[in-house]
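Annex B.
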Amino acid sequence: MIAQDDVIAILNDLIETSKDGEEGFRSSAKNAADARLKDFFLRRSKEVSVSVLELQEQVRALGGEPVDSTSLGGILHRRWIDIKTALSSNDNLAVLNETERGEDAALAAYRHALEQDLPADVRALILRQVEGVKRNHNLVKHMRNIYEAEAAVH
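PA2169 family four-helix-bundle protein: predicted structure tokens.
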């Protein structure tokens, strides 16, 4: 079993990753041209914010101080969404493509955390949350496929 400080560090990394996702979905909502897509992204952002709170509570329960910020990589990714959207002729598709990239990164972070020898309660939390990350990833991919098909028709 890894040291408690290492568990806290892993959880704090997941908090940053999740806050990146929360802000990423919010940024995607801002950049989407379609009202139903905006709503979709805002719902995903709210769902991820619940995950952030759960992770922060787990860090506190372990005696640690949870982070309350996004990562530099997440900030740069959101700026890339802004730039790509501004240059793209199909805003919705560009936003979905970049959002899917962000969800790929979140999935990788959660999978990496699960490779560690974590306490059972922490592992259970991360396993439950990774299912939400997978669901978000699959929903974004599904929406991207819909918008790609619509763009091909027009």
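The helical segments are 4-31, 35-61, 72-87, 91-114, 120-153. The mean pLDDT is 87. Further annotation is deferred to the next reporting cycle.
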